[in-house]
Amino acid sequence: MTMRSKFVGAGTSIHCYEVEWSPATLSWDDFRNKVLGPTDPADGPKGSIRRTILEQWKELGLTTEPNKGDNGVHASASPFEGLAEKINWLSKDLSKDPFGAALIKAGLSIETINAWSVDPRVNMPDGSKASVFDSLEDMDAGNCLAKLVELNGLRDDGDTI
User: Fold this and answer.
1) Dihedral sign (CA 79, 81, 85, 88)
2) For position 11, what pLDDT does the model report?
């Protein structure tokens, strides 16, 4: 949410795109790290989106050179983070989102999904607590769904969600 002010102030804008692909042809990890490029665009492979924005920032009309903090484009780190961002930024009805509907069908309550959409620390299988978003990073939808079901089973009344 700290970056939100950069996009909602006077003279600023944000564009949201939703893309879909088969994990059989492109993993979430490859999409983020090869197609989009790493967070620091200078580390991106030639032809990646962030690297291209870095190389062409003046021609694109940007006022500053992209860097690790402002790299020109954001992509969700997992299908769940994507859902959370749609809930938080676009007021998306999670039951109408395919991934949200799959979570509900798998037994996660709307309350849990909403609570987890702000990235709390939750119980992990090893007994530790960790960020929901970090524990799902670069997972394809099927693995992400399975991990969320597992984490939901680890909930207790003392959990910080």
Assistant:
1) positive
2) 77
Which two tokens mark 124?
A: 């992990």
CA distance 63 to 83: 30
**For residue range 34-61, what is the model confidence (pLDDT) as tens digits?**
999 999 999 999 999 999 999 999 999 9
Q: Which residues of 114-147 are buried (b: 16+ CB within 10 A; e: fewer)?
A: ebbbeeeebbeeeeeeeebbebbbebbbebbbeb
Q: Work out the mean pLDDT of the chain and round it to a whole number.
A: 89
Percent of the chain residues topping a pLDDT of 70: 91
Q: Which amino acid is at 120?
A: P
The CA-atom distances, in angstroms, between 131 and each of 60, 92, 137, 138 are 35, 22, 10, 14
Residue type, 23: P
Alpha carbon distance 156, 109 (integer Å): 14
Contacts 24+ apart (CB under 8 A), 96-104: 99/141, 99/145, 102/141, 102/145, 103/145, 103/148
Residues in Cβ contact with 48 at an 8 Å cutoff, skipping those fewer than 6 apart: 34, 35, 36, 37, 41
